[in-house]
C-alpha cells in the first residue's frame, strides 16, 4: 500500500494491480483529505479487482452495473442506478458483501416498509438487490443470496387493475382541449402503445391504406438529450390495427402542425407532459384516477372483452411471452369450465 501527499495538500493513492486478463497496470487517484482515506480507497479497489468476498456492496454494485452496460438499454440502466442510489446504497453501501446476512436484509426491508411504497415498487427495489447478489454468486463465489433467503417481498402486480371503459375514456376525451393531448390519448387508448413508443411515432409509421401503425422504436429523455432506441423487447417491433376514426383525427392533427415533415416526431414532448395532462383533466371529467400506463391495460381488457385470444393480445401488446399476457389478464378471460363440462357430457 502506498499513499503520498501532493503539493496541493491532498493525498494520492498510487498502486499496481492485475486486470482480469493478466495485465499489470498502475492506478492513481488523488484528492483524498487524509492518508487513511487514500489507503482505504486502494484497499477497496484491490478487493473489487480480485473479486474478494469482503468487498463493500458499493463496489459490487459498480461491477454489476459495469457488466450491465452492454446488455441493457440506457433507460433501464438509469432506472437501476437510481434505485441503487436512492433505496439501497444509502443503507448498505459500506457493508462487506460476506457480512450482509438475511437478518441485515430483513432490517433493510423493514425500513422500506416504513416509507409507504406500493407493494409492486417494494418488489422492484428488492429484485434489484437480489440481482446483484445473483451476479456475485455466479462470478465472485458468494455462497448464497441473502435476499432470496428472506423470502418474497412486495408483490409482482397490484391487487386490483385500474382501467377505463370506453364510456369513461369518452368522458375524459370530451374535456381535453389541446389538439396534441386529444390525439395522443386517442392513440394510447385505441392502440395500447407504451409512452415511449408513442413519443417516438412519426407520420411515416402509419399506413393509412391498411389501417396500421408500425412500432419500431421508443423515445427516452436522458439528461438533456432526446434518445430514440429500440423497443423494450424484440416482440415490441409490431404492427397494430388503428380504427378509421382515429386515423381521420390524425390527418386533421398533422394538418395543424406548422412546417411538419413526415419523419419528425408527432409529439415532441416528454412523458411528464402527458402525465400532467392526465392529472389536470381526470377530475374535470369526473372519472376515476388511473395512470397513463393503465390505458394499456384498458386496451387489453377491451380486446379480451371483444373475444380476442391470448396469443393475439400478446402480439398486439408487444409482450415477449404469452405467459406474460395470461399472468396479467387471466382474470379477465371468461370461465369456460361449464362449456368444457357440457362438451364432455355430450360425448357420453
Key descriptive features of the protein:
about 350 residues, mainly alpha, 3-stranded antiparallel β-sheet, about 10% strand
Overall residue-averaged pLDDT value: 87
Please report the number of helical segments: 15
User: pLDDT under 50 segments (min length 5)?
Assistant: none
Instruction: Report the helical percentage.
Output: 40-55%
Overall strand count: 8
The 3D shape can be described as globular
A few lines on this structure:
The chain has 15 helices and eight strands. It is mostly helical.
Notes on the protein architecture:
The protein is globular, with a radius of gyration of 26 Å. Helix content is 51%, strand content 11%. With 348 residues, the protein is mainly α. β4 (206-207) and β5 (212-215) form a beta hairpin. The longest helix is centred in the middle third of the chain and has 21 residues, at 119-139.
Helices and strands, with pairings:
Blueprint: E1 3-5, E2 11-18, E3 24-32, H1 35-50, H2 57-68, H3 74-92, H4 102-113, H5 119-139, H6 146-149, H7 166-175, H8 179-191, H9 195-200, E4 206-207, E5 212-215, E6 218-222, E7 225-229, E8 238-241, H10 244-256, H11 271-285, H12 294-305, H13 310-317, H14 322-329, H15 337-346
Antiparallel strand pairs: 1-2, 2-3, 4-5, 5-8, 6-7
